[in-house]
Structure formats: C-alpha cells, structure tokens
Amino acid sequence: LRPGDRAVDVAGGTGDLSLGMARRVGAEGRVVLPDINAAMLARGRDRLLDEGASGNVSCCVADAERLPFADASFDCVTIGFGLRNVTHKQSAINSMYRALKPGGRLLILEFSRPAKALRPAYDFYSFNILPRLGRLIARDEDSYRYLAESIRMHPDQQTLKGMMEAAGFEDCDYHNLTGGIVAIHRGYKF
Fold it and tell me: Of 26, 28, 54, 86, which is the most buried if we count CB atoms within 10 A?
C-alpha cells in the first residue's frame, strides 16, 4: 500500500490488518473494515479508536459474498483468516474482484495445507491438543475443534489459486508460511 490508496480489509473483525493498512495509506488514504459479525466489528472499531487510526478507517457490517461497494473502488483488498469461515468462497472472491480497481491486488492470508511431512503431527495437535487447550484456557473446546475442522475443509493452495483465477485474477501465486500451515495468496485485476 502507498499513501493515498483505498483498501478494504474483508472480514477484518478486530482490525488487526486494518490498523497497519491505515498507517500505510495515511491521512489522504482510506481503509474500510467490513465484517458480518457486528460484535467483532465493534471490537475492531474500538481498537482502531484506541490506536488513533479511526480518522481514515470506516467500519460496516457486510457479508463478504456481497460486498456493498461500487465496482472498481479499491486499490487493495485483503482477507486474513476469514475466507475459511465464508460459506460460498467463490462468491466472496468474485465480490472482492468486482470491488478492485484495474491494477488492484487481492491478498488472502489463511490456514492452508501443510507439507506432507508435517501433516501427522499437525493433525494430532489440531484435533487432540488444540481443543484441550481451548477447554483449559478459554473454557471453549468447541470453538477450537471448529477451528481445526474448518481448516481441513478450506481449499488447499492450488485449489484456492484456481478459484482466484476463475474470478478473473491474473498473475496469481501463493507463498507458504510455516511449512504450508498458513499461506498468502496474491492476485491482480488487470
């Protein structure tokens, strides 16, 4: 992002990415933080206010599958750890494509498919250790079990790249982090 850019942090909830984006685009730029969960969005708005980044950020309750923005509105669209919670992922990717200006880019940060050598240990941790930690620390085993299950249901790196290309994105690629446990996908609208 550059000063003056317009960006949207889809399913941004608590504003983690929005805060950094707001600092990058500066006072002359704009960041929009939509999330379907009003309670999460309120936490994000409060956090942005506390951090002094509310001047160039606006929040709205919105569904990622039907973003309420005009065509070609943004220089950059991000979604961090939110796409796997979207029911119709292709619809959301199509909606993000529509909202981008020509030359704009989409960045997706999401849990993905780990390297084959890591899968047995990762599966054991995800389905045995993580839910127990959730029960002990957060008193919420079910949410941590859902996390593990939703990660398994999310498309792998190549499939997600193909979905981006099907929406019209070009020069799509991805970069694996932590052995593929997390991946960053990138695509451009030309």
Answer: 86
SS3 59: strand
Phi-psi group of 153: left, alpha or beta (phi > 0 → left; psi -120 to 50 → alpha; rest → beta):
alpha
| pLDDT of 54 strictly over 80 | no
The pLDDT score that the predictor gives to residue 92 is 98
Q: What's the Cα-to-Cα distance from 145 to each of 109, 126, 156, rounded to whole Å?
A: 20, 8, 19
Q: Which two tokens stand for residue 102?
A: 């020509």
CB 75 within 8 A of CB 158: no
Q: What is the mean pLDDT of residues 101-105?
A: 98
Whether the full predicted model's pTM is greater than 0.85, yes or no, is yes
Burial class for 41, CB neighbours closer than 10 Å (0-12, 13-18, 19+): buried
Reference 111, options 164, 161, 156; nearest CA is: 156
